[in-house]
Amino acid sequence: MKLTDNVLRSFRVAKVFRENSDKINCFDFSPNGETLISSSDDDSIVLYDCQEGKPRRTLYSKKYGVDLIRYTHAANTVVYSSNKIDDTIRYLSLHDNKYIRYFPGHNKRVVALSMSPVDDTFISGSLDKTIRLWDLRSPNCQGLMHPQGKPVCSFDPEGLIFAAGVNSEMVKLYDLRSFDKGPFATFKMQYDRTCEWTGLKFSNDGKLFLISTNGGFIRLIDAFKGAVQNTFTGYNNSKAVTLEASFTPDSQFVMIGSEDGKIHVWNTEGGMKVAVLDGKHTGPITCLQFNPKFMTFASACSNMAFWLPTIDD
């Protein structure tokens, strides 16, 4: 089944889960799309079965808190940042709920975490104005960049380069094999003092990246030229909430939640808004991602919603 404007407009909430007592701050689909893992400000990690549409188990990270949770490539393992006590990144086995390794180094809150799509490398960006490069097999930092500002960062889909959005005004591209030489390209954007950049993501075809903000707009950027291809607005975000924006897996659409529980969807090609979907969320939709393998997506406030299309175009 192909994703079209009509199929997108037909999506409805199929299931709502109320497993959390506080907002869900992050979630991630497994690479095979069969499970989803969420982290919440209530210090819990909830594992969902996407095929059966139900929560499978709940783990807790009471001491350190949990944020920015990401699946690694090994089954049943995740990395996540802490939001209490320290700013160490933790590598957890879900199978026996034991830590495999710690990654100390940042001394302020980690605001970006991105797993390489191809190997055991990952990068983290922090309010300490550094980006660190890590390997899951070693607790030692493999590389350190000082981008001179708050960074949001992400790998490209081939895992060869990573992009860092710095100080909400420029994007620096680094080659993974020679990052110590500094960025090979820097794109300067128009600075908007009304808001901050909160996330950066590549499309699966590698041609575009998406910059999300805590304001009322998100930007679609040409990954090769650094030119703004589209600015998407018209969704509610008056309280400077960090709202996650995402591409669909086919790179054809961009979607974001809003503070009033609605999801807005645009076409990446022409920039037309194709749908506004009502998720009946009780709070701002802070997390939103499309399943990488199946025709479903998830959205979250303190509740988790799974969506399905109601037509087979």
UniProtKB/TrEMBL annotation:
Domain of life: Eukaryota
Keyword presence, Heme: no
Pfam families documented for this protein: WD40 (PF00400)
Cellular compartments annotated: Nucleus
InterPro entries: Swd2/WDR82, WD40/YVTN_repeat-like_dom_sf, WD40_PAC1, WD40_repeat_CS, WD40_repeat_dom_sf, WD40_rpt
Keyword Ribosomal protein found: no
Major localization listed first in the record, in broad terms: nucleus
Keyword entries, A-Z: Nucleus, Repeat, Transcription, Transcription regulation, Transcription termination, WD repeat
Repeat positions for WD: 17-58, 103-138, 235-276
Similarity comment: Belongs to the WD repeat SWD2 family.
Protein name as it appears in the record: WD repeat-containing protein 82
Lineage: Eukaryota, Metazoa, Chordata, Craniata, Vertebrata
